Amino acid sequence: MKKIFVDMDGVLCDFNKRYTEKFGLSPAEVKADRKNKMYSKHWHTFVDDHEFASLAKMANANDLIEILKAIDDVVEVCILSSAGGFDRQREVQEQKLEWLNQHDIYWPAVIVPGRRYKTGFASNDALIIDDTYDVVESFIKAGGHGVWYKDGGENGLGLIRGHAAQVNR
After folding, report:
1. Which CATH architecture describes the domain 3-14+56-167?
2. Are 84 and 52 a contacting pair, CB within 8 Å?
């Protein structure tokens, strides 16, 4: 691997927790309720209230950061996160960059308008770490490698430690 792309929401920071605290339902539950169509309204409120800048770190974020810092002298590490659409991209990008700065994470960051744009960074020497299965699957289909970092669990860290060990050989 020459490049590792790291997602933010669900990997480094806990979007779902804050969203659920704020609106009383998880993002998935709100999206599933197609009758009320509240996701877009909630999304705008979330951005207006500057929530992306103050999300909690995921439980294993520090462990992941430590693993990546140990190899970032031989592999380029880059944040690759989504702004959730074009209409609020600038504001979400500013908030996410603020979050990274507050947590002393200084790898280059690319905030794409939507998650489907992440596949544009795929190559045979690139790995994505993301909590969204279809993002990882699309990245792999586009020629890259991926780790589905579901729930930031120890399994995801184990896979990443394995990739890091290969880099250090």
Report:
1. 3-Layer(aba) Sandwich (3.40)
2. no
Q: How confident is the model at residue 161, as a pLDDT?
A: 80
Q: Answer whether 0.90 is exceeded by the pTM.
A: yes
pLDDT along the chain (169 residues), means of 10: 95 95 93 82 95 96 94 96 94 98 97 96 96 96 94 72 73
What is the 8-class DSSP label of residue 146?
A: E
Report the first-to-last Cα separation within the chain, whole angstroms.
Answer: 11
Largest distance between two CA atoms of the chain: 54
Q: From residue 1, how far is each of 58, 66, 108 by CA, in Å?
A: 25, 18, 17
How many H-runs (helices) and E-runs (strands) does the chain carry?
7, 5
Segments making up each domain of the chain, as ranges: 3-14+56-167, 17-48
CA dist 151 and 40 (Å) reads: 24
- For 166, residues 6+ apart whose C-beta sits below 8 A from its C-beta are 1
DSSP notation for 37-83: --HHHHHHHHHHTTGGGGPPBPTTHHHHHHHHHTTTTTSEEEEEEE-
